[in-house]
Structures are given as C-alpha cells and as structure tokens.
Amino acid sequence: MKIRTNSLAFRLLFSSALLVLIGLGAGAFALMEVYQDAVRREFDRQLRIVYDDLIGFSKVDRSGRVTFEERPDYPLFRRGVSGWYWQIVHRRRSVAQSRSLQGEVFTVELPPKINTDFSYETEGPFGKRIRVFARQVDFEKGGGAHTYLIAGDWTGPSRSIEEFNLTIALALGALGLFLVGAGFVQVQFGLLPLRRIPPALAEIRTGSADRLTGNFPTEVQPLATEINQLLDHNAQVVERARTHVGNLAHALKTPIAVLTNESSSADAVQADIVDAQTEIMREQVEHHLARARLAARAGVLGARTSIMPVLDGLTRTLEKIYAERGVAISVEGPPDISFRGERQDLEELLGNLMDNACKWAASRVKVTVRQDVDKMIVEVEDDGPGLTPTERRQAVKRGQRLDEATPGTGLGLSIVSDIAEIYGGEFKLMDSSMNGLMARLTLPVVEA
Fold first, then answer.
1. How far is residue 15 from each of residues 178, 196, 344, 438, measured CA to CA in Å?
2. How large is the average pLDDT for residues 121-145?
3. Adjacency order of strands within the sheet including 426-431
4. Which of 85, 174, 279, 413 has the fewest CB atoms within 10 Å of its CB?
C-alpha cells in the first residue's frame, strides 16, 4: 500500500522507525563496547600474570642491568615470530627481552605514571598486531625507572571482536527490520477505522448512504458522531431554506396578482404599463426563486437520481403530447447511470430540453446518455431546422424567444443553463448529426 509523506501513517512509521534505529543503534554500540572491553580485560589479565612472574624473578643493580634469579619459561615466549613477547626498557633502551623477539624491539609507549598499568595496541615485530601491557617500576637502587612490557598476539581476539560486532549488527538489523515491519502492520491495523471514513463519506456524497454507519473505536466514534450531526444539521438548514423560499414566493406572488387584477380597472395606457411591469416582476421573482430553490437542493449531500426512469417517463408523456405530429423519441444509454442531484431538478433539465426538441423536430428526437469519468453527458438531438450560432447564443438568454408564434415564456433553456451551472455542469447548443439542433448537457454523475 502506497503511503504519502504527509499522511498519519507515514508520520507514525517514520517516528517509530527512527526510534527503533536510535534504540538498536545505541544497544548495538553498547554491546560491542562491553564485549570488546571484556576481551581486552581478559587478555590484559593473562599478560599481567607474565608481568608478575617477571617482576618477581628480576633483580636490578645500580647500573640498571636486569638479571633473573630464575628466568620465566613460557613456550610462547620462546618460539620466534609467535606474537608473544616481553621486553624490559631502561632509559629508552631494551635491557632484557624474550627469545621470541629474536633481537627485534617493538614500539614503547610509557605509562603516564610510575606503578600504573597501561595497555595499548600496536604493530609488532614481523608484521603481527599485538596488544601490550606496560608498567613502569622505580627500583630504589636501580638507576631509575624500568618499563616492563608484555605483548600478546592480538590477531585472534581482534577477529573475535569483529565477528561479534558483525553478528550483533546482523542480528539487531534483522530485529530492526522485524520491528519496522511490525510497526507497519500495527499502523495499518490501527488506522483501519480512519480509512473506512473516506469511502463512507463518498457513499454519502454520491447518495448511496445518508449517514456514517458501523462500529468505530472509542477514539474515532466522536468523529463519526460529529459528522452525522453535521449531516443532520445540513439537512435541517436545507429544509429551512426551502420553507423560506416557499414563503417568499407566496408573499411576492400575491401582491403581483393584486396589481395585475387592479390594472384591469385602470385606463388602457396605464393598464398596459402596469401589466408590462408586473410581468417583468413576475419573471424576475420566478427566476430568482428558482435559483434559490436549486441552490438549496444542490447542497444536499447524498442526493442521487437514476436517469433512465426519468427519461422513460418523459418520453411517454411527450410522445402523447406530440402524438398528432407523430414525433418519435429514442433513448440510448447505460441503465445504471445516476445523476448526483435531486430528481425534480433532473426532470426539469431533461423535460425542458426534450420538450424544446419535440416542438421543433420534424419527426424524430434522439436522447443519448454516456459517462465520461466523473461526468454524465446527455445529448438531445432533433431533425428540425436547427439554429445559427447567433441564434444559439440568443436562445439561452432569459426571456428570449426566437419564434413568438410558438407557445412558451422563453425561460426554458435559461433555466437549463442555470441548473447546470449550479450543479457544476455545463450546457451547450450545437449542430446535430440529424441536421437539426443538439443540446449537450454535462452533469455530475454518481461514481460506481
């Protein structure tokens, strides 16, 4: 599953992975240091045993020369190039050494204080890596301090430390991968209830559901409750808006009707003026109230209307109305496509377009419906005389009628344009393949 960098899942995974990396890294470093320190201390302990024997058997005269009551006998210190050596240094000169050195010397680092243990690693004779245990001893009658150095082959312990470090790195690396993977599973499982909310909201938006339903965890349930309350509040606001629009319509229509009736008793000139002005007022009121009702309905979440039943009903009605002229209406389109909006708005849209096509058709009207991604395209064509580009632009203007002999108010195509605009759609008039006019309507569709 792809995780976006600005998501909660990424933040949780990144923070947990970072903490795992820091924790395991610190743990690995500590384990490596502890093991290496233990190996060094054990190695130094073995070297110190040799030192204790050397210091116990050695005697130093006033000139600084070292002699032994009994020379220490260790097989490793007798064999040449063994990597195990001892050496006594006085005034930067080797005054005694093991047979294994075969006359060679190794680097001397003096301890910082007299009678203080000092250890270090260096490149020894014959190219072997050695670890040196050193201690300065100040003999009262020995001509100054003598430095006792005991060295051992550090190749084996060094390899052991490297193998241990590699094992720890691989083991903790595998553990880190497991913990990160477990964190990924934990995050995905923990955020699963939140992932259910977007599809549920999409179902509400498309009309498949009207509320968030299901069992949510304690931490998510308040969010689901608030969303449902917001949906209820939205529905209440829309209902109040519809009520107010209806009340306003009634309040305005009554005075206009009174003015129209009163004009009949006035003289002819005044009556014509009053009639003309009241008709303008009526059209303006109808237009703006219609837009107000549309805006209220378009804001309803979850509204959906199947288009084919609406088209079938309109086809039956219009074929009866225009039966004398023999107008035939054909409908093509997928049966399961749905408009994301209210049924009465869809009926008004399609009714106006199909009625207009039937008025001007010679004998045939064709309605085609198809889906284009998240839009629904409806094309209504007729085989009538069609319109010029100038006439098309004039036809969608409110109150414009191209043929005064044909019944109508000139508001039909304007209403279609208004409804399409409110729903985020588009309305166009263009030439038809049937040699008449084609009205193309683009509307939001309910996603499958």
1. 15, 24, 53, 59
2. 82
3. 328-332, 364-372, 375-382, 437-444, 426-431
4. 174
Residue 242 burial (C-beta neighbours within 10 Å; 0-12, 13-18, 19+) = middle
Which of 136-150, 156-170, 199-213, 340-354 holds the top average pLDDT? 156-170
CATH fit for domain 305-444, picks 3.30.390.30, 3.20.20.80, 3.30.565.10, 3.40.50.150: 3.30.565.10
CB 39 within 8 A of CB 161: yes
What is the C-alpha to C-alpha distance for residues 416 and 412, in angstroms, rounded to an integer? 6
Torsion, CA 142, CA 147, CA 152, CA 155, rounded to 10: -160
Amino acid letter, 340: R
pLDDT at 412: 62
Given pLDDT bands bounded at 50, 70 and 90, which one contains residue 304? confident
Other beta carbons within 10 angstroms of residue 61's beta carbon come to: 12
pLDDT confidence of residue 291: 58
Element (H, E) at 85: strand 85-90
User: Is beta strand 338-339 parallel, antiparallel or unpaired with respect to 305-306?
Assistant: antiparallel
d(CA 46, CA 156): 14
For 338-391, give the DSSP string.
Answer: EESS-HHHHHHHHHHHHHHHHHH-SSEEEEEEEEETTEEEEEEEESS----HHH
CA nearest neighbour of 44 among 151, 129, 124, 160: 151
Contacts of 119 (CB under 8 A, 6+ apart): 40, 44, 47, 131, 132, 133, 134
At 75-120, the pLDDT tens digits run: 888 888 788 998 888 888 888 888 888 888 877 787 878 888 888 9
Determine the Cα–Cα distance for residues 416 and 443; give it in Å rounded to an integer.
11
Task: Bin 171: left if φ > 0, else alpha if -120 < ψ < 50, else beta.
Answer: alpha
Q: How far is CA 437 from CA 110, 206, 379, 392, in A?
A: 107, 32, 10, 9
pTM (two decimals): 0.52
H-type alpha helices, 207-267: 221-263
CATH (one of 3.30.450, 2.40.128, 1.10.1240, 2.60.40) for 9-160: 3.30.450
| pLDDT the model gives residue 410 | 40
Cα–Cα dist 7/10, whole Å: 5
| Residue with the two structure tokens 């995780």 | 3
- In whole angstroms, what separates CA 294 from the centre of its chain? 35
In this predicted structure, what is the pLDDT of residue 313?
A: 92
